Amino acid sequence: MKITTYAPEVEAQMRNFYHSLSEKDRRRYAAVEAAKLGHGGITYLCQVLHCDEGTVSRGLKELKMPLLEKEKCIRQAGGGRKSVVETMEGLDKAFLAMLKNHTAGSPMDESVKWSDLSRSDMAERLKQCGFSVSVTVIDQLLDKHNFRRRQAFKVEAGKKNLPHRDEQFKNIERLKEEYRVQGNPVMSMDVKKRIDRQCLSPRKALTH
Q1: How far apart are alpha carbons 134 and 140 in whole angstroms?
Q2: Domains in the chain: how many in total?
Q3: Do 22 and 67 fall within a single domain?
Q4: 124 and 154 assigned to the same domain
Q5: pLDDT tens readout for residues 17-44
């Protein structure tokens, strides 16, 4: 039975790929291709790849043998260039210090935390501390220290032009800084979310 041959352009691609491999991988690649073609495949593959039949036969024998552990991975475990997060000394400490006064969390889950700074703001602040890093590195640091991304949605307030809208936030930030200087704790409490029907309404929570 006549074997199915490949188009000339496909043969050229196979030949280019074959010659880009190591000697062992060449044998195995030729063997795989020959096995797909069946009877007469070895002779045809040798013509296409410009190799001898002994190379393909040896490859067929090697395919029947289990791979050694060292052959399963070309790069050694732990190989490759280490990330900036792992190699830049003092980066973690500077990152956490930067977020100390810019971290908030969920009142429902203490493991959930985020920052009010954008990634570009974080990168700029670290640059001022001597750490020139990209937002990609910022992402790695946020993941490493279990920070989550949080999108702030402004619905009603964003529709109105309120002249004193930012004063309350500036006043809160001023008070927080005064308490920190005095060594007093600062706690953020969300009084808008109702856990069950027994909870106080936001208005009552603020007056009790």
Answers
A1: 10
A2: 2
A3: yes
A4: yes
A5: 988 888 888 888 988 888 888 788 888 8
Q: What is the pTM of this model?
A: 0.40
Residues 34 and 88 in one domain: no
The residue assigned the tokens 């002994």 is 54
**How many CA atoms, within 13 angstroms, populate the side-chain half-sphere of residue 124?**
5
Distances (CA, A) of 113 to 126, 146, 193: 20, 7, 17
Kindly give the parts of the chain with pLDDT less than 50: 152-155, 157, 195-208
Contacts of 175 (CB under 8 A, 6+ apart): none
**Long-range contacts of residues 85-90, Cβ cutoff 8 Å, at least 24 apart:** 85/137, 85/140, 85/141, 85/144, 88/131, 88/133, 90/131
Cα separation, 208 vs 204, in Å, equals 6
Residue 85, token pair as written in the block: 């997060």
- CB-CB neighbours of 30 under 10 Å: 27
Q: What is the token pair recorded at 103?
A: 């971290």
Structural domain boundaries enclosing 32: 8-71
Cβ neighbour number for residue 189 with a 10 Å cutoff? 7
Query: Is residue 79 assigned to a domain?
Result: no
- Token look-up 């969300």 returns 190
Which of 160, 178, 202 is the C-terminal boundary of a domain? 160
